[in-house]
Amino acid sequence: MKLDGVSSRTIWLDSDGWSVGIIDQTVLPHTLVRLTLKTVEDAAHAIKSMQVRGAPLIGVTAAYGVALAMRADASDAGLDRAVRFLGEQRPTAVNLRWALEDLRATLAPLAVDARAAAAYDRAGKLAEDDVETCRQIGVNGLRLIADIAGKKGGRPVNVLTHCNAGWLACVDWGTATSPIYQAHDAGINVHVWVDETRPRNQGAALTAFELLQHGVPHSLIADNAGGHFMQRGDVDLVIVGTDRVTANGDVANKIGTYLKALAAKDTGVPFYVALPYSTIDWRTDRGADIPIEERSEDEVLRVQGKLANGDVGSVLIAADGTPARNPAFDMTPARLVTGFITERGICPASREGLKSLYPEKTSAAA
């Protein structure tokens, strides 16, 4: 996708051929900073601090983190340590575990002196696979938007999003945004309602930023306004991403997703979840079994933004001493989801629906 008119990705190998470049997403949209990861500790910090975030990008960053670790210590103990260390950084997004297990399986049978090169090769392939997977999610989701556009006779198709499931959450294209970008590029009149997504405001800071960069019409709204616009008939379709989908079709996504799904159900608005195959957790049967990350209360008590003097900083929005709770995700039961948009097609949000697209999988095996 575009940054200042230039095609860009969220992660890349630097010119030295081994260090890893990323966009620091904690300072967007006011400042564009590119960082260099040189150690497994750098990669772990980027994941934990949310310099990189979004389930697909977390997985690819972890893969490159293993590659960086193999440059320092490619022994069996070094591989085990890197996989364990990176896996501890964030508990909810299943792509992290998926990527680390993939790297372990790829590297463990190899000679120690072959592991670093193989790790870089595999991480690069996972990145390219993510780009094509997200592009194909867009191809499949485009027909939903095109169908609504045909019925509206040229009037804007209004899509509501939550959090950031855009190209900044992946390597390119995004999941929930891929159908939107492809609709826009195909000349369909599409408009996006962008949830601000408290407490970290990823909708405001990231989704609105990337839609603006690509020229997609959009409006930023407060999280609690989504139901209002649905009641008024101003939302044609909700598309969100996900950090994990369980074998029965339950969806773990950014906190507030559940409330959007309830509002969509009540108002008859289709509610779709866009996801790649790597986000399906075939080992976990239902959403209640997913660990929900709880982050620092400071994310609730403070808001980051551009200050009057032009600096980027944070301000306290509650009285000193106010306690807060900060669950990062919530669980949307499958019964509230109209369907899944995947790289293989669209299916009902159910065990049977998932198996119809992935017949080779079972709930007991990844």
From TrEMBL:
This protein's pathway: Amino-acid biosynthesis; L-methionine biosynthesis via salvage pathway; L-methionine from S-methyl-5-thio-alpha-D-ribose 1-phosphate: step 1/6
Identification of the protein by name: Methylthioribose-1-phosphate isomerase
Family in the record: Belongs to the EIF-2B alpha/beta/delta subunits family. MtnA subfamily.
Site positions (Transition state stabilizer): C163
Gene field: mtnA
Gene Ontology molecular function: S-methyl-5-thioribose-1-phosphate isomerase activity
Keywords attached to this entry: Amino-acid biosynthesis, Isomerase, Methionine biosynthesis
Biological process, per Gene Ontology: L-methionine salvage from methylthioadenosine
Superkingdom as given in the UniProt entry: Bacteria
Function according to Swiss-Prot or TrEMBL: Catalyzes the interconversion of methylthioribose-1-phosphate (MTR-1-P) into methylthioribulose-1-phosphate (MTRu-1-P). Also catalyzes the interconversion of 5-deoxyribose 1-phosphate and 5-deoxyribulose 1-phosphate. Part of a bifunctional DHAP-shunt salvage pathway for SAM by-products.
Organism annotation: Hyphomicrobium facile
InterPro entries on file: IF-2B-related (IPR000649), IF-M1Pi (IPR005251), IF_2B-like_C (IPR042529), Initiation_fac_2B_a/b/d (IPR011559), M1Pi_N (IPR027363), NagB/RpiA_transferase-like (IPR037171)
TM regions (residue ranges): none
UniProt-annotated binding residues for substrate: R53, G54, A55, R90, Q202, N253, K254
EC number: 5.3.1.23
Enzyme class: isomerase
Catalysed reactions listed for this entry: 5-deoxy-alpha-D-ribose 1-phosphate = 5-deoxy-D-ribulose 1-phosphate; 5-(methylsulfanyl)-alpha-D-ribose 1-phosphate = 5-(methylsulfanyl)-D-ribulose 1-phosphate
Pfam families (alphabetical): IF-2B (PF01008)
Active site: D243
